[in-house]
Write a structure and sequence with these properties.
Layout (H helix, E strand, L loop, with lengths): L5 E5 L6 E7 L3 E4 L2 H12 L7 H4 L5 E4 L1 E2 L2 E3 L3 E6 L23 H8 L5 H7 L4 H16 L4 E9 L2 E2 L8 H8 L9 H16 L6 E8 L15 H10 L4 E6 L2 H4 L4 H4 L3 E4 L2 E4 L7 E2 L2 E2 L4 E7 L10 E3 L6 E3 L10 H24 L4 H9 L28 H4 L1
Antiparallel strand pairs: 1-2, 2-7, 3-6, 4-7, 5-6, 8-9, 8-10, 10-16, 11-16, 12-13, 14-15, 17-18
Helix pairs in contact: 1-5, 1-11, 3-4, 5-11, 8-11
Bound molecules: ligand EPS.
Length: 404
């Protein structure tokens, strides 16, 4: 569903490295490894992360597409080393034949006919999201040139719900989320979330949760209502749903809106000093699959991590015997980390939508085009208030006069 950008990732969780190629990025964008490493470090932080995060220290190598500190317009090639690989490279790998419920173990083995489930988990692992975050950081760098920022915070962990004061500005939510390792902007709720995660870890179990990803200063008019795969709503939902363990997504408070009446939900339209404004944003920044210019608010539900210390019932596919799962090192809580991945996926979709709207191949070319975008101003709308006719060149349908 990307129209201007393309990206591919490759790599196994415990293989030597992860690789990514981003194609379609404009030329002339200032970019350093530090821009990417900042988000890679943010993705690594979580209360309830497994032992792997003590091993990995994600630092990207930019191998192509960036010269003298600026993108060239050529494909950008990125590499991340898996430090854990050294623990696996010379080892005999014990057979893994008992699929973990909830993981891709069973479904991927059915699809690909694997003789060992490790071949499934190596690529299904959320380790791959490190590369999404790296690509997303480049897209954020582009968006930042136009004042667009993206942040995230966690609103629910293991059933503990944070009540965020509705008047707390998004920038403050983002900043406060950075201050703790559950990424929750409300300190009391953050403490309750940590306690909940601790309890669940003691009970040898795992948690899921809900996070919000928000884009600020997005211009109106990105995306389109005219076709299903051009609706930005659909493109955002698909991107967020592609993140490991995400099983639900909503734009704005969509499920709550579904319980209300139309007059309680829709964001009424006002005119203030020549500008078209809204006093609410229950649409989550999108109407008709097009940006309204208000914050884009995406909420995502993450299922609990499917690798649990407490065994779950399963079947040994080698013997056909009923049995229980064996533990593989994993996370107990990955919601804070998934939120950072959500930022990346939203950044990729929005950078793509912006490039689609603006056209052009270099930052220099984009700047005046961005400045000339139609805004939510009455003067930007060419309404001429005159009657008109459909005027299709269609003589197969009788007119109302002929029908009487
Ligand atoms: C993951 C299992 C864990 C996580 C991993 C995702 O890895 P391991 O089995 O090596 O302990 O740490 O996430 C990452 C390595 C990462 O960088 O996010 C899984 O099964 O999806």
């Amino acid at each position: 569903m990307l129209t201007r950008l393309r990206f591919l990732t490759a790599g196994e969780s415990h293989g030597p490295a992860l690789i990514a190629i981003l194609e379609g990025m404009i030329a002339g964008l200032p970019l350093t490894a530090a821009d990417i490493n900042r988000d890679l470090a943010r993705r690594q932080k979580a209360y309830g992360a497994g032992g792997r995060m003590k091993i990995e220290k994600d630092r990207v190598r930019i191998l192509a597409g960036v010269m003298a500190g600026h993108t060239t317009g050529g494909p950008i090639a990125l590499m991340l080393t898996n430090r854990d690989y050294r623990h696996w490279r010379d080892r005999d790998i014990p057979p893994m034949t008992v699929p973990r419920p909830g993981h891709a173990d069973l479904t991927a083995a059915v699809k690909y006919g694997y003789r060992d489930l490790r071949l499934a988990l190596e690529r299904a692992s959320a380790r791959e999201t490190a590369m999404r975050v790296a690509i997303g950081a480049i897209c954020k760098r582009l968006l930042a040139e136009f004042g667009i920022t993206i942040g995230s915070y966690v609103v629910e962990t293991g059933g503990v719900v944070a009540t965020i004061p509705p008047d707390m500005p998004y920038e403050e939510r983002f900043a406060r989320a950075e201050e703790n390792d559950v990424r929750c902007p409300v300190p009391e709720a953050a403490e309750a979330m940590r306690r909940r995660v601790w309890e669940v870890m003691q009970a040898r179990d795992t948690v899921g949760g809900v996070f919000e990803v928000v884009a600020l200063n997005i211009p109106p008019g990105l995306g389109s209502h005219v076709h299903w795969d051009r609706r930005l709503t659909a493109r955002i939902a698909a991107a967020i749903m592609s993140i490991h363990a995400i099983k639900g997504v909503e734009i704005g408070p969509a499920f709550d809106n579904a319980r209300r009446t139309g007059t309680q939900v829709h964001d009424e339209i006002f005119l203030a000093e020549g500008r078209i404004v809204r006093e609410s944003n229950r649409a989550g920044g999108l109407e008709g699959g097009i940006t309204t210019g208000q914050p884009i608010v995406v909420r995502a539900a993450m299922k609990p991590i499917s690798t649990t210390l407490t065994p779950l019932r399963s079947v040994d596919l080698a013997t056909g015997e009923p049995t229980t799962t064996r533990y593989e090192r994993s996370d107990f809580n990955a919601v804070p980390r998934a939120a950072v991945v959500g930022e990346a996926m939203l950044a990729i979709v929005l950078a793509d939508a912006l490039l689609e709207k603006l056209g052009g191949d270099s930052l220099e070319e984009l700047r005046p085009r961005f400045a000339a975008l139609r805004q939510m101003r009455l003067t930007d709308l060419p309404m001429d208030n005159t009657p008109w006719r459909f005027g299709y060149d269609d003589d197969t349908t009788p007119s109302s006069e002929e029908h009487g």
